[in-house]
Design a protein that fits this description.
Elements lengths: L4 H8 L3 E10 L2 E8 L4 E9 L6 H14 L8 E11 L2 E11 L3 E2 L9 H20 L2 E2 L8 E6 L2 E6 L6 E2 L6 E2 L2 E2 L20 H16 L12 H7 L16 H10 L11 H14 L5
Antiparallel strand pairs: 1-2, 2-3, 3-5, 4-5, 6-8, 7-10, 8-9, 11-12
Helix pairs in contact: 3-4, 3-7, 6-7
Length: about 290
């Protein structure tokens, strides 16, 4: 993605100002900007159109999922459209939408958080994911990078974002154009077969299990990936959760919940993320580690 703030100013300057790059990857980027109409700081997601089959529909679906599924634990979107950007490589069509500005991604934020703060955000993650699943939406890329924090009067609030590969739960194969969907450290065992097209929601639960383990342990992963991610997900045993603040004390009840979330087969996991949250809350209370 080589779209510069000056290019955006030329294409969108009547509506937005003060563009600042927040992050980029592939042919997409997210900028901070000032919305002259809303009179507010916003985040602007921009995706360059290089002719990839299905990109316009995928970008529109991402926006519509967020626009139609509003919740305190999902990133809120505002407006969307298309522009022609006159960059270094000539005029190129770009798709864009605006969303609320979050403080940071969980990837860069969870390490210094207190245990109470980390417990709160993992439970909020499960709340947001349960809502999506109840609406038959699978995120397909749950990980700390796609979870965002905002500051509220009640404390930090988690927001699930980046719905670029989200889909109706039963309508997506594992691979598109020869590439597996999702991120390898969080990709459930069943998702390493390209032709698998079953319900993605159990795979979301699995990814949430890896994520909550990573957050609560302050950076450790639950599986041994020394032999590669596929082998780790499909064959590795699960390490006992170690929460630094608890001095290495074994949390047997919590380990049982994590082990079920990380079941090698989808039907070994909880029937729903709502069930998972209920069991995790009870296990944390039983171990004296409630948020």
């Amino acid at each position: 993605m080589n779209c510069a703030p000056t290019d955006l100013d030329a294409a969108l300057g009547e509506r937005f100002a003060c563009f600042k790059l927040l992050g980029k990857g592939g042919d997409g980027a997210v900028f901070a900007a000032w919305d002259r109409v809303r009179k507010a700081d916003i985040a602007l997601k921009v995706m360059r159109d290089l002719g990839e089959a299905g990109l316009p529909e995928r970008f529109e679906r991402e926006y519509q999922i967020l626009a139609a599924t509003r919740d305190d634990h999902l990133v809120a979107v505002h407006d969307h459209g298309q522009i022609i950007v006159l960059g270094e490589s000539g005029p190129t069509r770009h798709f864009w939408y605006t969303m609320e500005r979050c403080d940071s991604s969980l990837r860069t934020s969870f390490q210094p958080m207190t245990l109470a703060g980390r417990l709160a955000v993992v439970l909020q993650l499960l709340d947001g994911l349960a809502l999506l699943h109840a609406k038959m939406i699978a995120h397909r890329d749950i990980k700390p990078d796609n979870l965002f924090l905002v500051t509220t009067r009640q404390g930090p609030r988690i927001k699930i974002g980046d719905f670029g590969i989200a889909t109706v739960a039963r309508l997506a194969p594992n691979a598109a154009f020869g590439h597996l969907s999702g991120s390898p450290p969080y990709l459930a065992p069943e998702r390493w077969s390209e032709d698998e097209d079953a319900d993605w929601r159990p795979s979301d639960q699995y990814a949430a299990g890896v994520t909550l383990y990573e957050i609560l342990s302050r950076g450790s992963l639950p599986l041994d990936f020394s032999g590669g991610y596929r082998r780790g997900h499909q064959r590795s045993g699960i390490r006992p959760l170690q929460i630094p603040e608890l001095g290495g004390r074994r949390l047997i009840s919590v380990d049982r919940v994590v082990a079920r979330m990380l079941g090698k087969k989808p039907d070994a996991r909880f029937a729903s993320v709502a069930d998972c949250k209920r069991e995790l809350t009870a296990a944390l209370a039983n171990e004296g580690a409630s948020a």
